[in-house]
Design brief:
The protein has a domain of 253 residues. It has a five-stranded mixed sheet with strand order 3-2-1-4-8, with helices on both faces. It has a three-stranded mixed sheet with strand order 5-12-9. A two-stranded antiparallel sheet has the order 6-7. Helix 8 packs across helix 9. The chain has 379 residues and is an alpha/beta fold. Helix 4 links the parallel strand 1 and strand 2. Helix content is 34%, strand content 12%.
């Protein structure tokens, strides 16, 4: 497996000049055969991408399944060659497409949220059957197989996993003095931009009038406005947003949120961690730990509840990326054997952990919202 990674890194660009899709999919070992459960519970991924086609391709190979749907927002600042390469890869899959509109994305600004909303709307319009929405970027990697993710999200039973930091009391803290008040009564909350949300949550934003005006309000120009919309919608259950958390938010950071493993410089424990250890790699980007070889032990520990790890770069920590890729590949193969033989997988995750989360019981029921805003209307 490690040799496959090294060979792919060296020769990856040869595929993009004149790609033979059948040969490419076979040589890269995309998982074209899945369990009976997975097509019955399709997922939708919004992918933010800027550069490094090699990492993107390896990211896609790890996440891709024929039953899911994938929208790629390529930053408008990306080079023409990068845009061409990604589109060539996407052409090989019926369920992978680039966003209908691309914009310049800058970290910590409303553009990040706007790009995500573009893909969210494209996914809602494209297919009426997917059941959960996940937003990711190409510097992340799955810590669970697709079948495991499906089973975990089934347990949520329509609830969302959206991290909440704090209530938004003082707009000056986020560098804007003339912050507009919410257009409808709600408590603004700040939290993680990366979410796992039921389909109804996405449809509420895209199709309902309250969802649209709250989304436009959250696209104001102030620092980290991208962290406002999803958390505010998820922690105001009186709005009736599908999947929204109806439990006690104050002082309860972990319970509704488990899906990301990310470690901040100023946090004693990573979000989604089962134990508290420092950033073993010692490398940081925007105060977030870049995962390295010495972090692999906790990333691959079966007790780790997180679905996805944030901040792993093959060009910075290549051995860590190679090993994590090989580990996931082996887990998928073990899972396929166990599923085929109808035997239990000794390395299976502890699903009782997810069933014990209070978000399973404490959430607004997830139900669909019919289309109100006409397609093609920009945010």
């Amino acid at each position: 497996m490690l040799q496959r990674c090294v060979t792919m890194r060296t020769n990856i660009t040869k595929y993009y000049k004149k790609i033979n899709c059948a040969k490419y999919i076979n040589s890269r070992q995309y998982e074209t055969v899945v369990s009976e459960e997975e097509p019955q519970f399709p997922l939708a991924y919004s992918i933010m991408f800027y550069k490094d086609v090699c990492q993107f391709e390896r990211f896609l190979q790890a996440f891709w399944r024929p039953s899911n749907f994938y929208c790629i927002h390529i930053d408008n600042d990306a080079t023409p060659q990068i845009i061409y390469n990604v589109k060539e890869i996407a052409k090989c899959f019926r369920n992978v497409f680039t966003a209908s509109r691309i914009i310049d994305v800058e970290w910590g600004t409303p553009s990040l949220l706007e790009a995500d909303l573009i893909c969210m709307e494209d996914l809602v319009r494209m297919n009426p059957f997917w059941l959960y929405f996940l937003n990711v970027n190409a510097h992340e990697f799955p810590l669970k197989t697709n079948l495991e993710i499906v089973r975990i999200l089934k347990i949520l039973n329509g609830g969302n996993s959206i991290q909440c930091y704090s209530k938004f009391h003082n707009p000056l803290f986020h560098y804007r003095a003339n912050f507009d008040l919410p257009p409808i009564p709600l408590d603004p909350w700040f939290g993680e931009f990366h979410i796992v949300a039921c389909r109804g949550f996405a449809e509420y934003i895209i199709n309902s009038f309250p969802g649209q005006i709250i989304a436009r309000w959250s696209l104001q120009e102030f620092h980290h406005s991208d962290e406002l919309l999803y958390t505010s919608l998820n922690n105001n259950p009186h709005l009736g947003v599908p999947g929204a958390y109806s439990g006690e938010v104050e002082g309860n950071k972990f319970s509704p949120f488990f899906h990301r493993f990310k470690q901040w410089k100023f946090e004693p424990c990573p979000f989604g961690a089962f134990e508290c250890t420092p950033c073993e790699s010692g490398r940081l980007i925007r105060n977030l730990c870049i995962m390295g070889v010495r972090d692999l032990k906790r990333l691959t520990d079966i007790r780790n509840p997180a679905l996805i790890v944030n901040k792993i770069y093959w060009n910075i920590e290549p051995h860590a990326f190679d090993c994590l890729e090989a580990w996931l590949h082996n887990r998928v193969q073990e899972e396929k054997i166990a599923y085929t033989l109808h035997v239990s997988n000794k390395n299976s995750v502890n699903y009782s952990f997810y069933a014990s989360l209070d978000v399973v019981e404490k959430h607004v029921p997830c139900f669909p919202f019919q289309q109100i805003r006409p397609p093609g209307t920009h945010w």
